[in-house]
């Protein structure tokens, strides 16, 4: 029976991979593809999370027709709706709708194949798959604006703390020799999404208390903007006092990795303190 369940779920999963190929390929060919370089890694993480707790998750399994079939049908209906509406959507929103229908379908397939108890125990790995769904364009635009504004305000504080003379006009910082604009493409959306996902995963793996998991994610968002403001300050000072060419060089366009590592290093002690506080509570 166990093998039959596994084969059934694998068939469901294989079908979704075939269905997902076209919208994902279209998304990666669009100008928003850089936002979603993480998508291919998310299922691997979910599989690993299920694997390390497989004994607990699959301790008691049974087919769940009553719960699984409605979810499967809802996923199929959403997919067909996406196909029907596809011509009126941009590539990102089309991929978002199709991938969300696949997310629903996979959850329904697991529920159908293994039952409610197994589904509850595998809930986080299954919900983690939501990160394979591209963010709808309108929501993404709002997130980018939020990061742009936050990064600008933090950059303003860092410029003030540095003692460098500057004049601010909205998103533009005028230094002695150059002016720097914190444009939308400077919001750090790609690395911020990665930091956000890492914080969600780390909170699940290392923290037990829900509010501390949420606090870690909030700290990750602030750190993402702080990291971006440090990058803005660094490039601005280098451009103003070393060489203006730096602002149009590969260091500006592709030099985000060191600052991403910095963000993770800033997040690590927060995670450590939150985890340690839980141990003290348990011991108390």
Explain the layout of strands and helices.
Elements: H1 2-28, H2 41-52, H3 54-57, H4 65-85, H5 91-114, H6 116-121, H7 123-128, H8 137-162, E1 167-169, E2 172-174, E3 179-181, H9 189-206, H10 210-241, H11 250-254, H12 257-283
Antiparallel strand pairs: 1-2, 2-3
Helix pairs in contact: 1-5, 4-5, 8-10, 9-10, 9-12, 10-12
Can you describe this structure?
The longest helix has 32 residues, at 210-241. The chain has a 3-stranded antiparallel sheet, with no helix packed on it. It has 2 domains: 2-134, no CATH class; 139-283, no CATH class. A hairpin with a 4-residue loop joins strand 2 and strand 3. It is globular. It starts with a helix and ends with a helix. It is 73% helix and 3% strand. It is mainly alpha-helical and 284 residues long.
Percent range of helical residues: over 70%
Q: Radius of gyration in whole Å, from Cα? A: 22 Å
Report, as a whole number of angstroms, the end-to-end distance: 45 Å
Q: Count of DSSP helices?
A: 12
Strand order of the largest sheet: 1-2-3
Taken as a percent bin, the fraction of beta residues is under 5%
Q: What's the number of domains?
A: 2
Main beta-sheet annotation: 3 strands, antiparallel
- Tertiary shape: globular
Low-confidence stretches: none
User: Helix/strand/pairing class, anyone?
Assistant: mainly alpha
Overall mean confidence score, pLDDT:
88
What is the ordering of alpha helices and beta strands?
Answer: HHHHHHHHEEEHHHH
Please provide the count of β strands. Answer: 3
